[in-house]
Amino acid sequence: MRSPAVLDRWAWQSVWMLIEHRGKAPQVHPSAYVAPTAVLCGAVFVGADARILFGAVLTAEDGEIRVGERTVVMENALVRGRARHASIIGTDVLVGPHAHLNGTRVGDGCFLATGAALFPGSVVGAGAEVRIHGVVHVNTVLPPGETVPIGWVAVGDPAQIFPPGQHEQIWAIQESLDFPGTVYGLARDTPATERMSRQAAWYSSHLNDRQLPGRTPR
Hints:
Blueprint: H1 4-14, E1 17-20, E2 27-28, E3 33-34, E4 39-41, E5 44-46, E6 51-52, E7 57-60, E8 65-67, E9 72-73, E10 78-81, E11 87-89, E12 94-95, E13 100-102, E14 105-106, E15 111-112, E16 117-118, E17 123-124, E18 129-130, E19 135-136, E20 141-142, E21 147-148, E22 153-155, E23 160-162, H2 167-177, H3 179-184, H4 192-203, E24 210-212
Parallel strand pairs: 1-4, 2-5, 3-6, 4-7, 5-8, 6-9, 7-10, 8-11, 9-12, 10-13, 11-14, 12-15, 13-16, 14-17, 15-18, 16-19, 17-20, 18-21, 19-22
Antiparallel strand pairs: 1-24, 22-23
């Protein structure tokens, strides 16, 4: 029977989830930290002194994810890489708890607060801030140093920033950015059955995933 100390060490090592997806495995710099309960799936590259904290999920579906030096991805954040829209996060970036980064490019020194949402094709310039529950919509370009206030929505290229209650003004720009075409590769009027059948088939590639051994924490 294992002693408590041995059990603790065994449990610690067993829960870091490293997954090979579509034949590609995550690569983590030796100086980086990946927490137990974090998940790295597919072509994920974690740079020097980066920190991936508890519950974070970095899943490179059919694209890739790159996390720059000293960047911190906090608890329960989701980062997704796509074929047409890789997720590239620069150096010295803070990705807050429960943030959602999907096919986006984030410049150096950005601050992405709790619950921030960045959608495919978006670009966030160096030093920009997306504050609590702020949104950067598909194909939107947020200039360097710009701020999306708490709960506001950035939309367009270059971005215009609106409070969430201004739906008509947001939609006037958002419609032409083609969310369904960008995210699903489908027309807006595609029936849900077709859209979700294609999504289910796309995610079925995970059926062939292979769990890899995690590195022993120091």
